[in-house]
Amino acid sequence: MNQRLLSEIGRTQRLEIINSLKRTKGMSVNELVDKMGMSYMGIKQHCLTLQRDGYLDTWRRPQKMGRPEMVYRLTRRSHDLFPVDSNEFTVEMLAAAKEIYGANAPEKLLYNVFEKRTQTLRAKVKGDSVADRAKWLAKVRDNEGYMAQFLPSEKDGPQILECHSPIMNLIEKYPIIARLEQDMFEAVIGTNVRREETHTSGLYECAFYFAV
Q1: What would the pLDDT profile of 69-78 be if each residue is shown by its tens digit?
Q2: Distance between CA atoms of 46 and 102, rounded to whole angstroms?
Q3: CA atoms 109, 112, 118, 121: torsion sign
Q4: Among 81, 97, 118, where does a domain finish?
């Protein structure tokens, strides 16, 4: 995590607000009050400070009745407050590989990394059913910093929802990683997988849907 940014945030309550928002599409002040057990004005003041410093923005969430509700959500700047597995040096190394070994070198290196990672996971995977294996993989990914959770959706089938990517800078630079992740999930779970990625302001969600 970025220690300078953490010191800028300053208070534990503000970090708790950020952690709460990270797993959602946004929360109102009242929802944060219910979750954190603080006063309305206390939460509101922390949100205003975080908004001023560029960590939060607001949007109007439609309601079934009445006027839209103002909701706070994270901005892109908040990403650096969470675990990161790659940095600018990684990007520079891949760029250097491209210069030295040709245009396909970065993709070949990434493919090799994901192939080895897939082999490791397949050797360890637990569970007799798709759902059981997905539960296991969600725990592994959560421990790796992806803020992953297993959702046993009756409508869309079992899925893994991730609210953070420690390698987001690599995915932005090398979109092939999205396909490599999907291929890895398919090999480990043993079924077809659909990957859907969402970016809205600072919201990042990546859902993996498993065929059963």
Answers
A1: 999 999 998 8
A2: 50
A3: negative
A4: 81
Domain residues for 92? 88-210
User: Which of 113, 111, 168, 162 minimizes the C-alpha distance to 137?
Assistant: 162
User: How many whole angstroms separate alpha carbon 118 and alpha carbon 67?
Assistant: 49
The C-alpha atoms of residue 204 and residue 197 are separated, in whole angstroms, by 7
95 shares a domain with 53: no
Which pLDDT score is estimated for 201?
A: 84
| Owner of token pair 């959500």 | 73
Supply the DSSP string of 98-127, one letter for each residue. HHHH-TTHHHHHHHHHHHHHHHHHHHH---
Tell me, yes or no, whether 72 and 104 share the same domain. no
Task: Report the CATH number at residue 40.
Answer: 1.10.10.10
Return the closest-CA partner of residue 71 out of 60, 84, 56, 82.
60
The mean pLDDT values, 10 residues at a time, for the chain of 212 residues are: 60 88 93 94 94 93 88 91 85 96 96 97 96 97 95 84 94 95 97 94 92 86
